[in-house]
Amino acid sequence: MGEGRLTYSAAPDRAPLRWPGQARVALWVSPNIEHYEFLPEKIRVRNPWPRMPHPDILGYGLRDYGNRVGVWRLMEVFDRYKLPCTVSLSMSVLQMYPDITQAMLSRSWELMSHGLYNTRYHWGLSEDEERAAIAECQQIHRSVTGSDLKGWFSPAASNTLNTPDLVAEAGLDYLCDLYHDDQPTPIRVRSGELYSLPYSMEINDSIAWRRGQEAEAFAQKICDEFDTLYAEGAVHGQVMNIAVHPFIMGQPHRIEHLARALDYILSHSGVWCATGSEIIACYRQQMLATAPG
Fold first, then answer.
1. Global pTM value
2. Angle, to 10 degrees, between the axis of helix 127-145 and the axis of helix 98-106?
3. Which of 15, 25, 231, 233 is most buried by its number of CB atoms within 10 A?
4. E-strand spans in 78-162?
5. How many CB atoms within 10 Å of residue 293?
Protein backbone atom coordinates (compact mmCIF):
# COMPACT_ATOMS: atom_id res chain seq x y z
CA MET A 1 0.00 0.00 0.00
CA GLY A 2 3.01 2.28 -0.15
CA GLU A 3 5.46 3.37 2.51
CA GLY A 4 4.21 5.26 5.52
CA ARG A 5 0.56 4.15 5.45
CA LEU A 6 0.76 2.17 8.68
CA THR A 7 2.68 2.40 11.93
CA TYR A 8 4.20 -0.86 13.12
CA SER A 9 2.73 -2.07 16.40
CA ALA A 10 3.77 -5.28 18.17
CA ALA A 11 0.60 -7.03 19.34
CA PRO A 12 1.77 -7.80 22.93
CA ASP A 13 2.82 -4.18 23.56
CA ARG A 14 -0.53 -2.55 22.76
CA ALA A 15 -2.92 -1.04 25.26
CA PRO A 16 -5.80 -3.49 25.79
CA LEU A 17 -8.68 -3.05 23.37
CA ARG A 18 -12.13 -3.53 24.93
CA TRP A 19 -15.37 -4.37 23.18
CA PRO A 20 -18.87 -3.62 24.52
CA GLY A 21 -20.00 -5.87 27.36
CA GLN A 22 -16.38 -6.96 27.91
CA ALA A 23 -16.63 -9.15 24.81
CA ARG A 24 -13.45 -10.91 23.80
CA VAL A 25 -14.15 -11.13 20.08
CA ALA A 26 -15.88 -8.71 17.73
CA LEU A 27 -17.42 -10.96 15.09
CA TRP A 28 -18.39 -9.48 11.75
CA VAL A 29 -19.82 -11.68 9.04
CA SER A 30 -19.46 -10.54 5.45
CA PRO A 31 -21.48 -12.19 2.69
CA ASN A 32 -19.92 -11.20 -0.63
CA ILE A 33 -22.91 -10.51 -2.85
CA GLU A 34 -21.46 -9.80 -6.26
CA HIS A 35 -22.24 -9.47 -9.94
CA TYR A 36 -19.92 -10.76 -12.63
CA GLU A 37 -20.37 -9.51 -16.17
CA PHE A 38 -21.35 -12.17 -18.72
CA LEU A 39 -19.17 -10.52 -21.37
CA PRO A 40 -16.78 -8.11 -19.62
CA GLU A 41 -16.26 -4.98 -21.66
CA LYS A 42 -13.28 -3.55 -19.82
CA ILE A 43 -10.61 -6.22 -19.51
CA ARG A 44 -7.38 -4.82 -18.07
CA VAL A 45 -4.40 -6.45 -16.39
CA ARG A 46 -6.12 -9.80 -15.84
CA ASN A 47 -8.86 -11.68 -17.65
CA PRO A 48 -11.71 -12.10 -15.14
CA TRP A 49 -12.83 -15.44 -16.59
CA PRO A 50 -10.44 -18.43 -16.62
CA ARG A 51 -12.07 -20.26 -19.52
CA MET A 52 -11.76 -19.00 -23.06
CA PRO A 53 -13.30 -18.04 -25.35
CA HIS A 54 -15.90 -15.87 -23.68
CA PRO A 55 -18.56 -16.27 -22.53
CA ASP A 56 -17.41 -18.61 -19.76
CA ILE A 57 -20.79 -20.27 -19.24
CA LEU A 58 -19.52 -22.57 -16.49
CA GLY A 59 -17.97 -19.76 -14.45
CA TYR A 60 -20.81 -17.33 -15.01
CA GLY A 61 -23.51 -19.92 -14.32
CA LEU A 62 -21.96 -20.90 -10.99
CA ARG A 63 -21.90 -17.28 -9.85
CA ASP A 64 -25.41 -16.70 -11.14
CA TYR A 65 -26.51 -19.62 -8.97
CA GLY A 66 -25.32 -17.63 -5.97
CA ASN A 67 -27.70 -14.75 -6.67
CA ARG A 68 -30.60 -17.01 -7.63
CA VAL A 69 -30.35 -19.64 -4.90
CA GLY A 70 -27.31 -19.52 -2.63
CA VAL A 71 -27.89 -16.04 -1.23
CA TRP A 72 -31.29 -17.06 0.13
CA ARG A 73 -29.77 -20.02 1.96
CA LEU A 74 -27.19 -17.73 3.52
CA MET A 75 -29.91 -15.30 4.58
CA GLU A 76 -31.85 -18.11 6.25
CA VAL A 77 -28.80 -19.14 8.27
CA PHE A 78 -27.92 -15.57 9.23
CA ASP A 79 -31.54 -14.96 10.24
CA ARG A 80 -31.39 -18.09 12.37
CA TYR A 81 -28.61 -16.53 14.43
CA LYS A 82 -29.84 -12.92 14.13
CA LEU A 83 -26.49 -11.82 12.73
CA PRO A 84 -25.99 -8.15 11.73
CA CYS A 85 -24.19 -8.69 8.44
CA THR A 86 -21.92 -6.30 6.56
CA VAL A 87 -22.26 -7.06 2.87
CA SER A 88 -19.26 -6.87 0.58
CA LEU A 89 -21.47 -5.68 -2.26
CA SER A 90 -21.03 -5.15 -5.97
CA MET A 91 -23.01 -1.93 -6.13
CA SER A 92 -24.59 -2.95 -9.44
CA VAL A 93 -26.58 -5.51 -7.41
CA LEU A 94 -28.65 -2.63 -6.05
CA GLN A 95 -29.72 -1.78 -9.59
CA MET A 96 -29.98 -5.26 -11.07
CA TYR A 97 -31.49 -7.43 -8.33
CA PRO A 98 -34.43 -5.69 -6.59
CA ASP A 99 -35.37 -8.82 -4.62
CA ILE A 100 -31.90 -9.10 -3.11
CA THR A 101 -31.78 -5.36 -2.49
CA GLN A 102 -35.08 -5.41 -0.60
CA ALA A 103 -34.02 -8.47 1.40
CA MET A 104 -30.80 -6.76 2.52
CA LEU A 105 -32.53 -3.48 3.37
CA SER A 106 -35.30 -5.22 5.30
CA ARG A 107 -32.62 -6.85 7.47
CA SER A 108 -30.83 -3.50 8.01
CA TRP A 109 -27.61 -5.01 6.73
CA GLU A 110 -24.69 -2.66 6.32
CA LEU A 111 -23.66 -2.32 2.67
CA MET A 112 -19.92 -2.02 2.10
CA SER A 113 -18.86 -1.21 -1.45
CA HIS A 114 -17.01 -3.94 -3.32
CA GLY A 115 -16.86 -1.84 -6.46
CA LEU A 116 -19.38 -1.79 -9.27
CA TYR A 117 -18.82 -5.26 -10.75
CA ASN A 118 -16.46 -7.98 -9.56
CA THR A 119 -15.14 -8.20 -13.11
CA ARG A 120 -13.99 -4.56 -13.24
CA TYR A 121 -10.67 -4.36 -11.49
CA HIS A 122 -9.13 -1.12 -10.27
CA TRP A 123 -5.56 -2.11 -11.08
CA GLY A 124 -4.14 0.29 -13.61
CA LEU A 125 -6.75 3.01 -13.11
CA SER A 126 -5.48 6.57 -12.98
CA GLU A 127 -6.23 8.54 -9.83
CA ASP A 128 -9.08 10.39 -11.54
CA GLU A 129 -10.52 7.16 -12.95
CA GLU A 130 -10.48 5.48 -9.56
CA ARG A 131 -11.96 8.57 -7.91
CA ALA A 132 -14.82 8.47 -10.41
CA ALA A 133 -15.38 4.75 -9.79
CA ILE A 134 -15.62 5.31 -6.05
CA ALA A 135 -17.96 8.26 -6.59
CA GLU A 136 -20.25 6.15 -8.78
CA CYS A 137 -20.53 3.53 -6.04
CA GLN A 138 -21.24 6.23 -3.46
CA GLN A 139 -23.95 7.73 -5.68
CA ILE A 140 -25.69 4.37 -6.16
CA HIS A 141 -25.66 3.71 -2.43
CA ARG A 142 -27.09 7.14 -1.67
CA SER A 143 -29.83 6.78 -4.27
CA VAL A 144 -31.00 3.48 -2.80
CA THR A 145 -30.43 3.93 0.95
CA GLY A 146 -30.41 7.72 1.39
CA SER A 147 -27.13 7.49 3.32
CA ASP A 148 -23.40 7.46 2.69
CA LEU A 149 -21.21 4.41 2.38
CA LYS A 150 -19.10 3.60 5.44
CA GLY A 151 -16.74 0.95 4.10
CA TRP A 152 -14.79 -0.02 1.00
CA PHE A 153 -13.28 -3.27 -0.29
CA SER A 154 -11.86 -2.98 -3.80
CA PRO A 155 -13.40 -5.30 -6.41
CA ALA A 156 -11.50 -8.62 -6.44
CA ALA A 157 -9.05 -7.01 -3.98
CA SER A 158 -7.72 -4.86 -6.85
CA ASN A 159 -6.68 -1.85 -4.78
CA THR A 160 -4.14 0.68 -6.02
CA LEU A 161 -1.61 2.83 -4.19
CA ASN A 162 -4.13 5.68 -4.32
CA THR A 163 -7.08 3.75 -2.90
CA PRO A 164 -6.76 4.78 0.79
CA ASP A 165 -6.50 8.48 -0.05
CA LEU A 166 -9.46 8.34 -2.43
CA VAL A 167 -11.66 6.34 -0.07
CA ALA A 168 -10.96 8.81 2.75
CA GLU A 169 -11.55 11.72 0.38
CA ALA A 170 -14.97 10.25 -0.46
CA GLY A 171 -15.91 10.34 3.23
CA LEU A 172 -15.79 6.62 4.01
CA ASP A 173 -14.67 5.41 7.44
CA TYR A 174 -12.96 2.09 6.84
CA LEU A 175 -11.03 0.06 4.28
CA CYS A 176 -10.85 -3.74 3.96
CA ASP A 177 -8.01 -3.91 1.43
CA LEU A 178 -5.34 -4.70 4.04
CA TYR A 179 -4.88 -8.07 5.71
CA HIS A 180 -2.20 -7.29 8.24
CA ASP A 181 -3.76 -7.46 11.73
CA ASP A 182 -6.46 -8.87 14.02
CA GLN A 183 -7.41 -5.41 15.26
CA PRO A 184 -8.37 -2.19 13.47
CA THR A 185 -5.55 0.20 12.69
CA PRO A 186 -5.34 3.83 11.55
CA ILE A 187 -4.25 4.40 7.95
CA ARG A 188 -2.34 7.54 7.04
CA VAL A 189 -4.13 9.41 4.27
CA ARG A 190 -3.69 12.79 2.61
CA SER A 191 -6.78 14.21 4.30
CA GLY A 192 -9.42 13.05 6.72
CA GLU A 193 -9.45 9.80 8.70
CA LEU A 194 -9.44 6.19 7.59
CA TYR A 195 -9.17 2.90 9.48
CA SER A 196 -8.34 -0.60 8.39
CA LEU A 197 -10.97 -3.17 9.36
CA PRO A 198 -9.56 -6.71 9.46
CA TYR A 199 -11.00 -8.67 6.54
CA SER A 200 -9.95 -12.29 6.25
CA MET A 201 -8.43 -14.05 3.28
CA GLU A 202 -8.04 -17.15 5.47
CA ILE A 203 -11.55 -17.49 6.89
CA ASN A 204 -12.81 -16.94 3.36
CA ASP A 205 -14.67 -19.64 1.43
CA SER A 206 -13.37 -18.33 -1.91
CA ILE A 207 -9.76 -18.93 -0.92
CA ALA A 208 -10.63 -22.30 0.65
CA TRP A 209 -12.48 -23.30 -2.53
CA ARG A 210 -9.50 -22.42 -4.71
CA ARG A 211 -7.28 -24.49 -2.43
CA GLY A 212 -9.58 -27.48 -2.79
CA GLN A 213 -10.73 -27.29 0.84
CA GLU A 214 -14.28 -28.53 1.35
CA ALA A 215 -16.92 -27.19 3.72
CA GLU A 216 -16.33 -29.48 6.69
CA ALA A 217 -12.65 -28.54 6.83
CA PHE A 218 -13.49 -24.88 6.27
CA ALA A 219 -15.97 -24.95 9.17
CA GLN A 220 -13.33 -26.52 11.40
CA LYS A 221 -10.90 -23.77 10.41
CA ILE A 222 -13.50 -21.20 11.48
CA CYS A 223 -13.78 -22.87 14.89
CA ASP A 224 -10.01 -23.19 15.30
CA GLU A 225 -9.46 -19.51 14.52
CA PHE A 226 -12.19 -18.52 16.93
CA ASP A 227 -10.65 -20.61 19.75
CA THR A 228 -7.33 -18.78 19.46
CA LEU A 229 -8.83 -15.30 19.16
CA TYR A 230 -11.23 -15.99 22.02
CA ALA A 231 -8.38 -17.03 24.31
CA GLU A 232 -6.31 -13.98 23.33
CA GLY A 233 -9.36 -11.76 23.70
CA ALA A 234 -9.25 -12.15 27.47
CA VAL A 235 -6.42 -9.57 27.34
CA HIS A 236 -6.71 -7.91 23.94
CA GLY A 237 -10.08 -7.66 22.20
CA GLN A 238 -9.82 -9.23 18.76
CA VAL A 239 -11.70 -8.98 15.48
CA MET A 240 -12.87 -12.07 13.63
CA ASN A 241 -14.21 -11.86 10.10
CA ILE A 242 -16.02 -14.64 8.27
CA ALA A 243 -16.21 -13.98 4.52
CA VAL A 244 -18.54 -16.15 2.46
CA HIS A 245 -19.90 -16.14 -1.09
CA PRO A 246 -23.43 -17.27 -2.03
CA PHE A 247 -22.20 -19.33 -4.99
CA ILE A 248 -19.80 -21.27 -2.72
CA MET A 249 -21.11 -21.59 0.84
CA GLY A 250 -24.72 -21.24 -0.35
CA GLN A 251 -24.50 -24.65 -2.00
CA PRO A 252 -26.79 -27.29 -0.44
CA HIS A 253 -23.89 -29.57 0.55
CA ARG A 254 -22.04 -26.77 2.36
CA ILE A 255 -24.59 -24.54 4.06
CA GLU A 256 -25.09 -26.54 7.26
CA HIS A 257 -21.35 -26.74 7.86
CA LEU A 258 -21.37 -22.94 8.06
CA ALA A 259 -24.35 -23.09 10.42
CA ARG A 260 -22.53 -25.54 12.72
CA ALA A 261 -19.50 -23.25 12.89
CA LEU A 262 -21.68 -20.25 13.76
CA ASP A 263 -23.51 -22.32 16.35
CA TYR A 264 -20.15 -23.15 17.98
CA ILE A 265 -18.98 -19.54 18.07
CA LEU A 266 -22.26 -18.18 19.40
CA SER A 267 -22.44 -20.80 22.13
CA HIS A 268 -19.72 -18.77 23.87
CA SER A 269 -20.32 -15.70 25.97
CA GLY A 270 -18.21 -12.65 25.19
CA VAL A 271 -18.86 -12.52 21.45
CA TRP A 272 -19.97 -9.16 20.11
CA CYS A 273 -21.75 -9.55 16.77
CA ALA A 274 -21.30 -6.20 15.07
CA THR A 275 -21.21 -4.40 11.76
CA GLY A 276 -18.04 -3.03 10.28
CA SER A 277 -18.90 0.55 11.15
CA GLU A 278 -19.78 -0.37 14.74
CA ILE A 279 -16.39 -2.01 15.22
CA ILE A 280 -14.56 0.99 13.78
CA ALA A 281 -16.60 3.46 15.87
CA CYS A 282 -15.79 1.55 19.06
CA TYR A 283 -12.11 1.34 18.17
CA ARG A 284 -11.92 5.00 17.24
CA GLN A 285 -13.56 6.07 20.50
CA GLN A 286 -10.96 4.18 22.54
CA MET A 287 -8.08 5.41 20.42
CA LEU A 288 -9.14 9.03 20.89
CA ALA A 289 -9.65 8.52 24.62
CA THR A 290 -6.07 7.25 25.04
CA ALA A 291 -4.40 9.73 22.68
CA PRO A 292 -1.83 11.95 24.41
CA GLY A 293 -2.82 15.53 25.16
1. 0.95
2. 70
3. 233
4. 86-89, 110-113, 151-152
5. 2
